[in-house]
C-alpha cells in the first residue's frame, strides 16, 4: 500500500505523491491523474495513461505520440 498526503495549497487541496507512487502510476510532475469511483463506493487513483481502455483514448495517445510525423506527412 502506498500512502499519499493531502496538503492545502492556497484555496485548493493538493495530493502529494512520493517517488514510489509516481513510479507506480507512471506519472511525472504536471501530468493529470484520475480518481475513479469503484462500484463499492471507494476511489482508485489512475495514472496519465488511464484512458487507454477506450477507443478514443488510444486514438488520442497515438496522435500525441506521432504528431510531428503526421504533420510532416499532411502539411501544416
Summarize the structure.
This protein is 34% helix and 24% strand.
Task: Determine and state the CATH class.
Answer: Mainly Beta
Q: How much helix, percentage-wise, in residues? A: 25-40%
According to CATH, the fold-level topology is: Pemi-like Protein 1, Chain: D
**What is the second-level CATH architecture?**
Ribbon
Strand count, sense and barrel status of the largest sheet are: 2 strands, antiparallel
Q: Overall 3D geometry? A: elongated
Strand order of the largest sheet: 1-2
Beta content comes to: 15-25%
Distance between the termini: 47 Å
Structural domains: how many: 1
Q: What's the tally of helices?
A: 3
Instruction: Look at the structure and give the mean pLDDT.
Output: 79
Record field, number of beta strands:
4
Structural class: alpha+beta
Element order: H for helix, E for strand:
EEHEEHH
**Alpha carbon gyration radius:** 16 Å
Low-confidence stretches: none
Structure description:
The protein has 76 residues and is of the alpha+beta class. The chain has one domain (5-74): Pemi-like Protein 1, Chain: D. Helix content is 34%, strand content 24%. It contains three helices and four strands; from the N terminus they run ββαββαα. It has helices at residues 19-25, 55-65, 67-74, and strands at 5-9, 12-16, 34-37, 43-46. Strands 1-2 form a two-stranded antiparallel ribbon. Strands 3-4 form a two-stranded antiparallel ribbon. β3 and β4 (43-46) form a beta hairpin. The mean pLDDT is 79.
